[in-house]
Amino acid sequence: MMLARLVISLLILLGLAAMIGVERTGGVTILDNWESLPKRAVTRENNPNYPQRNPFYFEGRIDYELLGIDEPRNAWEFAQRGMHKQDDLEDFEGAKADYRQSIQMNNLENGTCQLVTSVPATGFANLTPPPCMFTVRSRLGYLLLHDHPEEAIQLFREVLEIDPLRLEIHALIGEAYVIEAEEAHSEEEAHEAYLKAIEEFKKELALSPVTPEFTALTGDEANNAHVHFEMAEVYEHLGEYGEAIHSFENYLKATRWHSDVYPWRIPLAEKKIEELREKLE
Amino acid sequence: MGISVRARRWVVLACFLLAAPLQSQTPVGNPQTFTLKSQPYQRPEACLPCHQRQYNELRQSVKSGYRNVSPLFNGLELAGNFLSGGRLRPVYGDSTKLRADGQPFGGNYASATSYVHINQVQAGFCLGCHNTNIVLKGEDPSTREVPEVNALGNAFLPDTIRPLRDYHLVDASGHQILPAEPGGPAPPGARPSLGAAGISCDVCHNVMSPAIDRSFQRDGFANTSLRLFPSISKVGPFLFPVAVKGNFHVSSGDPDRIDYIRSPTLCNGCHDVRVPGGGSLMAFETNINAGGAGVTHYRLENLSTEWALGAYNSTRNPFGRVIRCQDCHMSLYPYAGESTYTVGGLTVKSPTPAVMAENFAAVPGVSTAYNTPLQRRQVSTHYMTGIDVPLMGVDELRARLGPDYPDPLTGGLDEYGHPTALKQRREDLLKAAVRIYLDKSDKSVQMGGTFNVRVTCIALTGHRFPAGFSQERTTYINLTVKDRNGFVLYQSGYLVDKPHPDTGEMEPDGNLDDEDQEHLIAIADPGRRIVPFQAGPVNNGHTNQVFSPGPDNGPEARVYIGRPAGLVLFRNELTRIFLPGAPANSSLGRRDAAGNPILVTRPHFEETFSAGFANGVDNFRSLQPLRPTTFRYEIHLPTEHELEELGVHIEGPLQVHAQVDFEHFPPLFLRFIARTTSQNGPAGRNLHLMDEQLIDTYLKNNRNIASADLTVDLTR
């Protein structure tokens, strides 16, 4: 009788535990429905995760839900939502729309942003209109790169107006010209686009030059491996085999101590050099 | 006869009514004095006879001992002094030094009751956190362990500065002894000073309350916002403590103090670090206390805020209750069983927090007055394991911290059957911190085509991961895609053995642990000795001498361009925004191909590896806890033509392997410390802190703290 009562009590307890959705593991109660519990209310105000412009906007990416934004109100908030859509949701069209809205609200043409060329003695923190943002432009440019390279180039050029020393932007413009060349309607058009690409790749290389000090400190005789590889391919298209060999050689120098994310490109570049040398002979 | 009962009732009621407003008053600030019987700060050895277990555990914690003699901590503090002109050393009340505004200091980092000038926060900035009590004791010249520097700003003489650890040595009589030359080895017979113990027993157990007036947001967070009062009244976690034998100390029964030491708010007092100076040019923050508006700052360590805003500081987490700092860092975690729960639809198995040991709080039979019996109860462990491990050998540790200092690399099991050695504990903690998944990846790809690998990561920590000095804690995804025969089609987060001429390693040394990831090729300028000295980066470095994107560029490209390729790095990022104007501010610190300094004409954002030089920070690269975050890699396979040229035939299915690796400091940062404290640095003398050999010997990469595998069909 006692045993039966005990078993029944135990069953009731187990049933109750199952009903309220908990289990015990390692001495601690586990909630299996914790993600459906109400979230902490977060707002823009007094939120350490919501940075106050000073005078620059935070150009990085903040986990969107930490911002406490219901609907974006300004250029920076649209940019943040766009990044969330692009990176977290892979909603590229939604991201583009938010980026466009952001740029519309942070725009040289309509006077809603400015290029900072000097630091005023007072009031720098409250610079009005605010500085133009670069991340939103480079991100939108990247999303448009394949389908609308011309528009992408325009956006990348705006980034360079904001910061002429920003790395990788000239290389992206170069990539955009390569895409234009590949889609060109005539050889002349393609040739012209390839030449422009080369020009941009060279500008990219100039931003992080391989100086004697660079080599003395690193042991590297070249850097920017990917730019050299792309340049080599463009020179190959242009029939400038000597330059192509030179660029492939620089790629090999740049990867000597750094390898490549696509390591098979290294033996491929060596093969290409051999082939191109044969063509030159 | 007296007063009638009725009249007495009226008197009592009147007293209640008069007292009511007092009850409802909100305390403003803290009382300035305490009436407790004072007692000098005690060495931890004084606590050992009655608290052997806690003593042994605490010795394994880097904050109690190692940190104060750490070559990295000491080197970083020196580098900050070179940049600022000695401003990070304490300035005491008897000093004739003045702030930049010409006023007396009015208190330093630890002693100021409230901050009204940046120079106060700077004065003892590093030491004030890691050795608060030593800075406070320094107000009395007779107990001063760390002296002031000779002069500040441009008058600072960098060739005379010693590493802080030089001052943490005493002889057998307890008198300070210094190494023969600055930074030299510990003299024979040297013993550790009180300061060598760092954050020891008395720092926490003498705490009175949060120091609200010193806390920038009046919330008790950051920069040692603790009210410390060295007295015989030690606070522990238990109400109604037993009397102590011999009255060596009394155990506080003050419920407010007990609540405080049991609470994460105690930890919050130190585990946010806000760097005073120009602050962040991307996020304005200042001191809201009266007169403090000019004390601008940026957030370096943001761990406490992350916890406070996170799921563990709520009941909305898998455990349905607040998980305190103590529940992971002062419990049996990660050795007390495992829990299984879901996060974003993914099933997670991880160690269970908040399981405390059952033990005695003091040694029975020797610790209580009248030999009052002690009861076994839930106690805290004092390992306080984190993700750091000494960059020193055990011999040097023992030379500076005493012959009984435990070997951090080897050890046995404690009384609970858990590892005692820091290295093992740290590895186990790291393995509990994160999980990764590849489930959302594309399941097939055509030969020569493009496919997406999606790595989903979940941090299981109470704060973001990594946290603490998160701008250096190098946590990243190491991803490889191979064909069936092992041919590598894509790699990210890989390391390459290479020379390091900047620190004298002229050939690859066969060691991958001293290599940085390949997203960036960077070398920070160590500065150089120039007479007369001038504070700032022109002569003292901290700019990037070398800065060039590497083939695995992911961190910058992912954030600023949105390109789904390259390294996923959870290390937060310090930023220097160079501004157009005077060359001192606008020079990137390196030269163009023609040999001219590169000057900015527009604001230029660039990663920096110096907290002292940063004027911006991105603390959102790290993983938010309990939030699945997916990182996409768009991977291009070689074309048939390319494979033909290579003479390679690839076979499916493709093997995708992803793992999380961790290194507590990036090698390039250690090389900066090595160079800036070498004879070629601003001091013009070797301060014997770090070199390539030390990096090669002690810097270790913790590989594979979490991993996932997937096969992808290859179609033709």
The number of strands of chain A is: 2
- Strand % of chain A is under 5%
CATH class of the domain at 433-493 and 623-664 and 699-716 in chain B: Mainly Beta
DSSP summary: helix tally of chain B: 20
Strand content of chain B: 15-25%
- Could you state the CATH homologous superfamily of the domain at 433-493 and 623-664 and 699-716 in chain B? Immunoglobulins
Tell me the radius of gyration of chain A: 28 Å
Oligomer: heterodimer
The CATH architecture of the domain at 433-493 and 623-664 and 699-716 in chain B can be named as Sandwich
Secondary structural class of chain B: alpha+beta
Q: How many angstroms separate the termini of chain A?
A: 102 Å
Order of helices and strands of chain A: HEEHHHHHHHHHH
Largest sheet of chain A, in brief, is: 2 strands, antiparallel
Question: Can you describe this structure in just a few lines?
Answer:
Chain A is built from eleven helices and two strands; from the N terminus they run αββαααααααααα.
Give your account of this protein's structure.
The complex is a heterodimer of chains A (281) and B (716). Chain A has 281 residues and is an all-alpha fold. Helices cover 56% and strands 3% of the residues of chain A. Chain A has two domains: 43-116 and 123-166, Serine Threonine Protein Phosphatase 5, Tetratricopeptide repeat; 190-281, Serine Threonine Protein Phosphatase 5, Tetratricopeptide repeat (Alpha Horseshoe). In chain A, strands 1-2 form a two-stranded antiparallel ribbon. The model of chain A is unreliable at 14-26 (pLDDT under 50). Among the domains of chain B are: 433-493 and 623-664 and 699-716, Immunoglobulin-like; 521-566 and 573-618 and 666-694, no CATH class. Chain B has 20 helices and 27 strands. Chains A and B meet through strand 2, helix 2, helix 4, helix 8 and helix 11 of A and strand 9, strand 17, strand 19, helix 16 and strand 21 of B.
